[in-house]
Amino acid sequence: MMVFLSFFKAWLIGVAVAAPIGPIGVLCIRRTLDKGFIGAISVGLGAALADSVYGVIAASGFTAISHFFIEQKYLIKLIGGVFLIYLAFKEISSRTVKELKIENGRKNMIFDLKVFLLTLTNPMTILTFIAIFSSLSNEVVKPGIALILVLGIFFGSMTWWLVLGSMICMLRGSLSQTWKNMIRYLSAFVLASFGLFAIII
Question: What rounded mean pLDDT belongs to the chain?
Answer without folding.
Answer: 79
